[in-house]
Amino acid sequence: MRKAETKNGNSLAAGKKVLKNSQTGDMAAASAKNQIEMDCYMERFHRHSDELRWLYMELYDNGSMFAELCENMRSFYRERGEDLKALDQSREKRPDWYKQNDMLGMMFYIDNFAGNMKGVEEKLEYLETCNVNYIHLMPFLDTPKGRSDGGYAVSDFRRVQEKLGTMEDLESLTAACHKKNINVCMDFVMNHTSEDHEWARRARQGEGEYMSRYFFFDNYDIPAQYERTVPQVFPTTAPGNFTWLPDIGHYVMTTFYPYQWDLNYKNPRVFNEMMYHFLFLANRGIDIVRIDAVPYIWKELNTQCRNLPKVHTIVRLMRLISEIVCPGILLLGEVVMEPEKVVPYFGTVEKPECHMLYNVTTMATTWHTVATRDVGLLKKQLDIVNSLPKEYLFLNYLRCHDDIGWGLDYNTLKMGGIEERPHKKYLNDYFQGYIDGSCSRGELYNADPVTGDARFCGTTASMCGIEKAGFEQDEEGMERAIRKDLMLHAYMFMQSGIPVLYSGDEIGQVNDYSYKEDMDKAADSRYIHRGAMNWELAKRVKDSSTIEGKIFMGLNQLEQIRRQECVFVSQADTWTIETWDPGVLCIGRYYNGEKLIGLFNFCELDRTAWIDEEDGDYTDLISGKRMKAKGVDIPAYGYYYLKKDKE
Questions:
Q1: Angle 376-386/360-372 helices, nearest 10 degrees?
Q2: In b/e form, how buried is each residue of 335-356, taking b as 16+ CB within 10 angstroms?
Q3: Does the pLDDT value for residue 22 go beyond 70?
Q4: 3-state DSSP call for residue 140?
Q5: Contact 572/605 with Cβ under 8 angstroms?
Q6: What is the pTM of this model?
Q7: Is 26 known to be catalytic?
Q8: Active-site residue, from 142, 287, 323, 334
């Protein structure tokens, strides 16, 4: 008995020793792994620290705040999940990972698309069938009901809107997306906060520390000076750039809406705290951070408070911080200007700022081309974009959550006898369906009776005529509208950059007029194209006899071609070709010995593209037909992807 007890005791002791050694080994391995990770972090930090410190001190000259920023950056790195750190490392090894021809985006409001974040997670297989590997979740952070500006008046940067879910749901969604190689984009609204944000509430109570985080004035003298030089964003719905707060007897700067208070980035506490919010959200699994209203971030008296040099200092600092803590993150800048004017927001090759920018003007010029059937201005716009360095990446789209502002190149149009004000009226009348020959439907936004200026709202399908043809039960008109819709997408895919769809466009979803019945939305006509995803219609995508099936399958074919053909990479040479027909656009792409020519008829009549590419035979990737790239006949709203045959 004693021998057995001794034997068992020895075995137990030996087992404990093995377990202890195992635990010690695990701890040692974990410690070694942590040390390797911190060495990696410190290498990145030391690589960028000199510039980071120099830029920060140039802005703020505050060493203690800089030290605090550095310490918090290190803390956020430690908290970053292992999967995200691994993703960072893989992307560092392949820095052009987002510039390939397989990138396709889709933007949507979470509630409109699937109810909440868990609903989106359940719809990931559908997104895969759409060939989408980049989703832009429209604003989902906490906002006050009825005073949210579509989610851009944030009251808490670390809380999800209750109806949409929780931060844990966001982490679950991003993790599920990463398993399917889907990237997640979110809006980071850093120009302003909601008046319900804790900082704003405490400022309203007269706390100086928090008042200094905004622009407060106890009389109108300085605001009056700002108003002399600062343009109004919404002159009709939200005139002026300041709001009077009678309860505290102060004016506060509100560039957008009275309930959105502009942040004062001259205060280093504002910059630091917003960077902590940025890193917190990055650690939730966000891949692409869309910086909202970038040009407005820095304010200076006696300027337009737009595009000031220190805006670029802030964006560069943000880029450095992300490259140190979370180098897999991409910065997407919302800059609403012509491509040649947004170029500074890319920074330089040596000192980059944003990874990507929106191609807003080309989007507006595209619809101008639809209304005029003249590709001249669009061709010039594309030539400008194509002449920019290949390091610059644009996001291209036909429609988004916002209105269409007619910010066209009126200097060029004037040379052809087109004046700005009457042309804007023509475009708005055309897309409302008031012009003979128009099949579009939609509504104006923020119409100004004084200047005659207005923006336009409507879905891609409704602007192409699908709504009108459906209402009138016009089968011939419907076929023409579907062809027009697909032609525009085919053209968009040929542009240099990443194409992005707006949710519902893949099934031809039309305008939703029910927003007028919601008192929180009725005054904002942009909700006409922000309707809920119709999942009943989405069930028809495999039925080629339906509108939804024709559009979905047509887009799927284009998307597959784009993925398979190397000429669609962002680094490809891209140029326009003269067609000698004002209604036909021709785009060429060349990469690694392969050549593709895209032809797009913006007219409701058959046309001929008088191109003369005498370098062999071509095959149309849409129909499979072999043909010459010479004097090509194109049906109304037709399109071709002509690939040069190998010799």
A1: 160
A2: bbbbbeebbbbbbeeeebbbbb
A3: no
A4: coil
A5: no
A6: 0.92
A7: no
A8: 334
Closest CA to 248 of 201, 191, 209: 201
DSSP state letters, 496-525: SSEEEEETTGGGT----GGGGG-TTTTT-G
Nearest to 459 by CA among 402, 499, 538, 407: 402
Nearest in space to 545 (alpha carbons), one of 553, 534, 536, 535: 553
Amino acid (one-letter) located at 528: I
Least confident of 9-18, 140-149, 363-372: 9-18
How many other C-beta atoms are found inside a 10 Å radius of the C-beta of residue 623? Answer: 10
Read off the tokens for 263: 């942040």
Non-local CB neighbours of 404 within 8 Å, separated by 6+ positions? 363, 364, 367, 455, 456, 457
Structural contact between residues 469 and 637, judged by C-beta atoms closer than 8 angstroms: no
Torsion of CA 70, 75, 78, 83, to 10 degrees: -90
Residues in the chain: 647
Lowest mean pLDDT among 144-148, 232-236, 397-401, 458-462: 232-236
Measured in whole angstroms, the distance separating CA 425 from the mean position of its chain's CA atoms is 28
Give 543-577 pLDDT, tens digit per residue.
999 999 999 999 999 999 999 999 999 999 999 99
pLDDT tens track for 432-477: 999 999 999 999 998 887 777 899 999 999 999 999 999 999 999 9
pLDDT of 21 reads 62
Helix (H) / strand (E) element for 224: namely helix 221-229
Give pLDDT, residue 349: 84
Two tokens, residue 280: 């917190």
CA distance 317 to 311: 10
C-alpha 587/C-alpha 522 separation (Å) is: 41
Does residue 289 contact residue 282 with C-beta atoms inside 8 Å?
A: yes
37 is catalytic: no
Query: Which residue among the candidates 111, 292, 512, 559 is catalytic per the annotation?
Result: 292
Tell me the residue type at 164. L
d(CA 175, CA 183): 10
Across 63-67, 230-234, 277-281, least confident range: 230-234
Q: Are the C-beta atoms of residues 556 and 131 closer than 8 Å to each other?
A: yes
Span 23-35, average pLDDT: 66
